[in-house]
Amino acid sequence: MAIERTFSMIKPDATKRNLTGKIVDRLESAGLRVVASKRVYMSKAQAEAFYAVHRERPFYGELTAFMSSGPTVVQVLEGEDAIAKNREVMGATNPAEAAPGTIRADFAQSIGENAVHGSDAPETAKEEIAFWFSGVEIVG
Ligand code: CDP
Ligand code: MG
């Protein structure tokens, strides 16, 4: 295993319910270090660009409307096997299927409003980090 960086978001449903600190605690307790973080209120166009990979999916309109409906905390996480570890701590996309003790099992409200985002592979992690952060904003 190697030290990796991954991209994470605390989605508008979670910031609205004041769960930012609780979610960051789950990530840090799992050994992930927050090396960049900022709160953004993304536009619909930014949400569409960020989620462009899903543009043909039926939920694309709803997803991008939701992601531009309130503040999001965008973060870079660093640690051993960070990409897989973050996905593990997050839990499955659908909170009804998420393992007990995961962020989505405990905090998500639905498959769409599911509290957090995490990159799924090294290439997407790199692209998603670069979408939101410049190099000088990441302090390891
Ligand atoms: O976020 P994750 O990588 O687990 O799931 P995804 O398949 O990459 O989907 C991205 C996001 O689209 C999810 O986190 C949900 O917010 C949303 N989604 C949805 O609203 N309905 C679905 N059937 C699947 C995903
Ligand atoms: Mg995904």
What does this structure look like?
By secondary structure, this protein is α+β, with helices and mostly antiparallel strands. Helices cover 39% and strands 20% of the residues. It has helices spanning 12-16, 20-29, 44-50, 60-67, 82-90, 103-107, 122-132; strands at 3-10, 33-40, 72-80, 116-118. α3 (44-50) crosses α4 (60-67). The longest helix has 11 residues, at 122-132. The protein is globular. Residues 54, 59, 63, 93, 111-112, 114, 117, 120 line the site of cytidine-5'-diphosphate (CDP). This is Nucleoside diphosphate kinase. The active site is at 117 (pros-phosphohistidine intermediate). Its main location: cytoplasm. Keywords: ATP-binding, Cytoplasm, Kinase, Magnesium, Metal-binding, Nucleotide metabolism, Nucleotide-binding, Phosphoprotein, Transferase.
Give keywords:
binds magnesium ion; 140 residues; 4-stranded antiparallel β-sheet; globular
Give the N-to-C terminal Cα separation. Answer: 18 Å
Q: How would you classify the helix and strand content by structural class?
A: alpha+beta
Mean pLDDT: 98
Strand content: 15-25%
Taking all Cα atoms into account, the compactness measure Rg is 14 Å
What percentage of residues falls in helices of 4 or more residues? 25-40%
Strand order of the largest sheet: 2-3-1-4
So what's the overall shape?
Answer: globular
* Poorly predicted runs: none
Bound molecules: cytidine-5'-diphosphate, magnesium ion
Number of strands: 4
Number of helices: 7
GO molecular function: ATP binding; metal ion binding; nucleoside diphosphate kinase activity
Active site: 117 (pros-phosphohistidine intermediate)
Keywords: ATP-binding, Cytoplasm, Kinase, Magnesium, Metal-binding, Nucleotide metabolism, Nucleotide-binding, Phosphoprotein, Transferase
Organism: Acuticoccus mangrovi
